[in-house]
Design goal:
Helix content: 10-25%
Largest sheet: 9 strands, mixed
Oligomer: single chain
Number of strands: 25
Strand content: 25-35%
Mean pLDDT: 77
Number of helices: 6
Low-confidence stretches: 45-72, 403-459
Length: about 450
């Protein structure tokens, strides 16, 4: 009796193992309900899973059923937002460190030696052209001037007497000529004495502000003694050098932005006013000079400036920053062409907060996809929706809007933009309100917009 029970147990175990082996290894046999197990409500292999098991490999390669979900050329269309590619100009500039100096500046020195008698102005005083800044003792020079005046007067009176005597032929012509010569010599002596007297003064050669005085009243100075400095700071000249590769790009009239640590947070706008006529063969640089107005007298001579010269940039296709994607192959964008997604590998030329200048098989006016509800693959069918505030223009028909409004279930009011089409620059919305709906995140995110305009989540 015990042997028969053991045989039954072994048989049952063999049946269970066999069924399990078939269940694992040959699922196609159980793709349809088995009558024996269906009578007790048992389904060994669901019909949907069997169908996937049998046809899964073919779908992955051909991109039909499974391809629609992955965006690989299936029949399911993916909702995507897009904009037209515009034209942007590179922000090309050259920077250098320069030194500023007053438009007019000089150091004042006396023209003769002597003791200082008077200093009419103090440091920091604004003086006009011709104002006396320093006076030396001039007693001897005043005496010389008075002596020269007396000699001139006597010579002129002698000439008058000789002219009266000439009429009566009392004096000779030679005597008259000697009297005239003495008069001219007296005039020269007076001029010389006046010049010597004037040299006892130091005058301001132009209008400006005096610096600190290096001398005091009573000091004995010579022609090599510096009195003070005089600066006309109504404008500041900034000299700096640029590399020789920019020598043929900078020119007079270019705008220069200037910043200095002496005035943090301030940006001064200047203009290139002078360029050296040759490149320095040793440093391979070109010296240039910029002029910046200084009406508030905020800048001083000798200040270091960070100079930036804006140059003419090159034109490149411009796309929104959100449209640029990256993977192992590098940067790329997705274009929409004939209702399908097309990948275009690009090279980033310049990037800013809201735009990217690129190089590649992208032209101004092309439609670039900025956001999509799912990952894109080449050939994925897409339904385009214009970015809020923009109008899509078909590259083939520049005058015909492809998508002229941002649509939502509750509001389909269009927002038109200015400057659409090829190379028309950044679009700007007209006044008016538009229901923009929820923002669409880039591919690979957890949320998006379904084709009917409602938000949904994806796993």
């Amino acid at each position: 009796m015990s042997r028969s029970r053991q045989a039954v147990k072994v048989g049952l175990i063999a049946v269970v193992v066999g069924i399990a082996g078939l269940y694992i290894g040959k699922p196609v046999l159980f793709s349809k309900p088995v009558p024996l197990f269906a009578s007790v409500g048992l389904t060994l292999w669901p019909t949907e899973m069997a169908d996937v098991a049998v046809k899964g490999s073919g779908n992955k390669q051909q991109g039909k059923r499974g391809g629609g979900k992955r965006g690989g050329g299936g029949n399911h269309e993916i909702l995507a937002r897009a904009r037209n590619v515009t034209t942007g100009v590179t922000d090309t500039f050259v920077r250098a460190i320069g030194t500023g100096r007053a438009a007019k500046m000089t150091d004042l020195y006396p023209e003769s030696s002597g003791r200082i008698q008077e200093l009419p102005f103090k440091a920091g005083t604004r003086v006009s052209t011709g104002d006396v800044v320093l006076r030396l003792d001039d007693a001897e020079e005043k005496l010389a001037v008075n002596r020269a005046k007396l000699a001139l007067k006597d010579a002129e009176e002698q000439v008058e007497r000789y002219e009266k005597l000439m009429s009566s032929q009392t004096i000779s012509t030679v005597q008259m000529q000697n009297a005239l010569l003495a008069t001219n010599q007296a005039r020269l002596d007076l001029d010389k004495a006046s010049i010597d007297l004037d040299r006892r003064l130091v005058r301001a050669p132009f209008e400006g502000i005096l610096g600190i005085m290096d001398v005091e009243i009573g000091d004995y100075v010579t022609q090599s003694s510096r009195i003070t400095g005089l600066d006309d700071r109504s404008s500041i000249l900034v000299e700096f050098v640029v590399p020789e590769r920019f020598a043929n790009k900078v020119k007079r009239g270019d705008t220069v932005e200037l910043r200095t640590e002496a005035m943090p947070g301030h940006t001064f706008s200047g203009e290139l006013t002078a360029l050296e006529n040759r490149v320095n063969s040793e440093s391979r640089t070109l010296k240039v000079q910029a002029t910046v107005a200084n009406p508030d007298d905020l800048l001083r001579s000798g200040i270091a400036f960070d100079a930036r010269v804006q140059l003419e940039g090159d034109e490149w296709p411009s796309v929104p920053s959100i449209a640029l994607k990256w993977d192992r192959s590098g940067p790329h964008v997705w274009l929409a062409e004939n209702g399908e997604a097309l990948r275009a590998d690009v090279t980033v030329i310049e990037r800013s907060a809201d735009r990217v200048l690129i190089e590649g098989e992208v032209e101004s006016g092309d439609i670039v996809i900025t956001e999509s509800v799912r990952d894109l693959r080449p050939g994925t069918k897409v339904t385009l929706q214009a970015e809020p505030g923009f109008t899509l223009i078909s590259p083939d028909e520049p005058t015909a809007p492809l998508v002229s409004e941002t649509q939502t279930p509750s509001n389909k009011t269009g927002v038109k933009g200015k400057g659409q089409g090829r190379g028309q620059g950044k679009n700007k919305p007209d006044t008016g309100q538009t229901d923009k709906g929820e923002p669409v995140k880039s591919s690979g995110s957890q949320s998006g917009i379904s084709p009917d305009g409602t938000t949904k989540s994806s796993s």
